[in-house]
Amino acid sequence: MMRFVQVAVAGDVTEAEELQTILHEAGIESKLETAVDHHPAQTDDAPQKVLVPESSLEAAQEAIEAMSEPDELVSDA
For the chain, what is the mean pLDDT? Predict the structure, then answer.
């Protein structure tokens, strides 16, 4: 059985899905898990843990980091 480990915590489901898209594009499997306990009747958008296979942790960190770096400005100087 593959062991999944946490690579990030997203503030909400939308952010978590964006991270999953980045990971998917890098060829890395991922899954989400609620990061905090909440009442089942609550519909609030709870923080999410983004989990990846332990063997893909480093590649996942690099993929997320690469997408979060600001684009360098190109000058015509």
Answer: 87
